[in-house]
């Protein structure tokens, strides 16, 4: 099994990436009735650069989401710092 996680660039520190990968593998194992993930399963965690997402005929950005109330102010600051905005 190959799993591809693609996320918008938003200050994804290595420990957060590792936790996301581990949780996905654990959830898949549980869904398959296994105690642990199979050794042949692979997870690819990709961060897509700001301005490189496209949908509905246009380019998407994480920046409008920062003002939506979805993120804590600390997270907003971290994302802005990571993106240099």
Please write the string of helix (H) and strand (E) elements. Answer: EHEEEHH
Low-confidence stretches: none
What does the overall shape look like?
elongated
Helix content: 25-40%
Describe the protein's architecture and organization:
The protein has helices at residues 14-31, 63-66, 73-83, and strands spanning 2-8, 42-48, 53-55, 58-60. It is of the alpha+beta class. It is elongated.
Give the helix/strand layout.
Layout: E1 2-8, H1 14-31, E2 42-48, E3 53-55, E4 58-60, H2 63-66, H3 73-83
Parallel strand pairs: 1-2
Antiparallel strand pairs: 3-4
Concise synopsis of the structure shown:
This protein is of the alpha+beta class.
Q: Features of this protein?
A:
4 strands; alpha+beta; two-stranded parallel sheet; two-stranded antiparallel sheet
């Amino acid at each position: 099994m190959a799993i591809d996680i693609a996320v918008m660039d938003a200050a994804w520190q290595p420990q957060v990436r590792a936790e996301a990968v581990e949780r996905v593998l654990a959830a898949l194992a549980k869904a398959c009735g296994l105690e642990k993930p199979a050794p042949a399963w692979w997870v690819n965690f990709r961060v897509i650069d700001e301005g490189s997402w496209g949908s509905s005929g246009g380019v998407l950005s994480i920046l409008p989401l920062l003002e939506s109330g979805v993120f804590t102010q600390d997270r907003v600051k971290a994302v802005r710092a990571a993106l240099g905005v």
